[in-house]
Write a structure and sequence with these properties.
The protein is of the alpha+beta class. 45% of the residues lie in helices and 20% in strands.
Length: 74
C-alpha cells in the first residue's frame, strides 16, 4: 500500500456538486478570516466560531464561516 501525501488528496468538499463547500483546516480558516491561527482555534474551542474537531484538529466549512460572518456583521 502506497503512502499518499497531502497534496495528492487535493481539496475536500462536503455536499452535492452544486452546493459543495470546501473543508478548511484551522490554518486555512485563519487565512480566510484574516486572523491568527491561535485566535481561530481558541474561538472554535469556546464555540464562538462554528467548527468540528476531528481528532486533535479543527475543521471549518467555508459556507458555514460565510454565514457566521454575515450574522456577526448584522
Amino acid at each position: 500500500m502506497s503512502e499518499k501525501t497531502a497534496t495528492e488528496y487535493g481539496n475536500i468538499y462536503i455536499g452535492a456538486e452544486s452546493e459543495a463547500s470546501p473543508v478548511m483546516t484551522s490554518t486555512e480558516a485563519a487565512d480566510y478570516l484574516k486572523m491568527h491561527v491561535k485566535t481561530v482555534c481558541r474561538l472554535a474551542k469556546e464555540g464562538k466560531i462554528p467548527a468540528k474537531k476531528v481528532g486533535s484538529e479543527w475543521r471549518f466549512l467555508k459556507s458555514v464561516l460565510d454565514r457566521w460572518l454575515t450574522e456577526e456583521l448584522v
